[in-house]
Amino acid sequence: MPPLQILDGHNDTLTRIFPPADDTSASIVDRDGDGHIDLVRARRGGLGAGFYAIFIPGGEVESRPITANDDTHLEAGCSDVVLRTQARPMTDSVLDRMDAMLEQHPDEIRLVRTVDELRYCLDHDVMALILHYEGVEMLEPSLTDLEADYARGLRSLGPVWSRSNAFAHGVPFAFPCTPDIGPGLTEAGTNLVRRCNDLGIMLDVSHLNYRGFMDLAETTTAPVVATHCGAHAVCASSRNLLDDQFDVIRDTGGIVGANFHVGFTRPDGQRDANTPLDVVADHLDYMVDRMGIEHVALGSDFDGATMPAPLGDCAGLPKLIDVQRTRGWSDEALRAMAVDNWLRVLEATWH
Question: For residues 132 and 52, is the Cβ–Cβ distance under 8 A?
């Protein structure tokens, strides 16, 4: 039996294969032995589509004292601001190298701009690449370049990574810790939400702090989406979502892609790859209990995080599906989680 087809909510594969350099030969088509995704392993694991992020690395994440909005004082992993003068050229370089890769392999991997194009790829064994910006430091605060990026294929973005920019404030990394750290969206951030709604660009609340999340939810006319998050009630990381955030996502018809990163899934918050897949399954079950199966999906963070050793890479996805089956998930529920829920949200968001 072929593996269940999966649309994954988040990976950092473009960042891995296109580092800040001029190499245009990198590709995910052939088995490369590195990272978590290439097409050989993707076919083995049933990975047929994904949100491929462009992320602009900054300085090292450093432990710094912070104060949460409830006046709790703690140490958190923080990252410095990245300037547009750095981010824009790096983004354009990745886009150019991505286009070259796609041009060389049109029958194996394609950039998709519509749900019809996405469905075609899923039906014809072509990897569907959904272009995502993880943090929008590359954009002018006035958004004069957003439409040009949309024309190049941008269909999803998260206003922030876990640092601040002109649009919003990312949540720093801490455990145990609330995500309610820092203020909400800036005026530019509110304008970004509205413009994305106008263009049909999906907005991702992953890495956004609590107040920014609530501001975005109040402003947007589209379903609220977290492409790669977990349940704070299971793992009390600042990167995970509280129950009232799950309620907002449910009530807007949104979706959460469950993150696989062990530091955001283990109840002890440890970055230990010796972690059973039941830990990821616990987050999935919790989210289903809170929101319903129609609001739950997968958001691995492949090539950007520490995976549970039993999973390994994208070829191991059927192992997670098997864990869910042993927990009583029906074939219909598994298909909803794997691809159908994403298709529903994208149909409601893209124009």
Answer: yes
